[in-house]
Specification:
Layout lengths: L1 H46 L10 H30 L7 H8 L4 H34 L4 H35 L1
C-alpha cells in the first residue's frame, strides 16, 4: 500500500513541473511572437513617416510597441498555455501524434477526416471574410477607436466560434450521411 501511495505522491509534483514547463514554453512563444509583431509594426510605422530626418529610430519605435503590447500578449500567451494544458493534460500534442491522428485505422475515421479537412479550410476562409466585413462595417461608423476595436474583436470571436461549430456539425452530418 505504501509503495503505491508513494509513487502517486511523486507523480503529482512531476506533473505540476511539467505543466509549469509547458506554461513557460507558452510564454516564451508569446514573447517571440510579441517581438516579431513589435518589429513589424515599427517597420510599418517608420515606412509611413514622410520626414526621415526627424523620424525616431526603428529600435525606439519597437521598444515602445513592446511596452504597449507586452501585457496583452503575455496574458494571451498564458491563457493559450493554460487552454493547452486543459485540452491535453497528459502531454502536449506533437507532430508524430498529429501524423498518427491523420492516419486513421478504420475506413470510417478516414472518411470523417477526409470530410473535415476541406470543411475546415472553407470555414477558415468564411471566418476571415466575415471578420473583414465586420471590421469594415464597424470602422465605417466612425465610433471611437477603443469601442470599435472591442466590437471588431467580439464580432470576430463570435464568428469564429460559429464557423467552428458549423464545420464540426457539417463534417458530422456529411460523414454520417456518406458512411451509412
Amino acid at each position: 500500500m505504501s509503495g503505491a501511495s508513494s509513487s502517486t505522491a511523486h507523480s503529482d509534483p512531476r506533473g505540476f513541473r511539467d505543466w509549469l514547463a509547458r506554461a513557460a514554453r507558452g510564454l516564451l512563444g508569446g514573447l517571440a511572437g510579441l517581438v516579431v509583431v513589435a518589429l513589424l509594426d515599427a517597420q510599418f510605422a517608420l515606412a509611413r513617416v514622410t520626414d526621415r530626418a526627424r523620424a525616431p529610430s526603428l529600435f525606439s519605435i519597437a521598444l515602445t510597441d513592446l511596452g504597449v503590447i507586452a501585457p496583452a500578449a503575455l496574458v494571451v500567451a498564458l491563457v493559450g498555455a493554460a487552454l493547452g494544458i486543459v485540452a491535453h493534460p497528459a502531454q502536449p500534442p506533437s507532430a508524430l501524434s498529429l501524423a498518427q491522428w491523420l492516419a486513421p485505422r478504420s475506413a470510417q475515421d478516414r472518411l470523417r477526416r477526409a470530410v473535415l479537412v476541406p470543411l475546415a479550410i472553407l470555414g477558415a476562409g468564411l471566418w476571415v471574410a466575415l471578420s473583414a466585413n465586420i471590421a469594415r462595417l464597424v470602422m465605417s461608423r466612425g465610433a471611437a477607436a477603443a469601442s470599435s476595436g472591442a466590437a471588431v474583436a467580439a464580432g470576430s470571436i463570435a464568428c469564429g466560434i460559429g464557423v467552428f461549430v458549423l464545420v464540426l456539425v457539417g463534417g458530422g452530418v456529411v460523414a454520417g450521411a456518406t458512411g451509412r
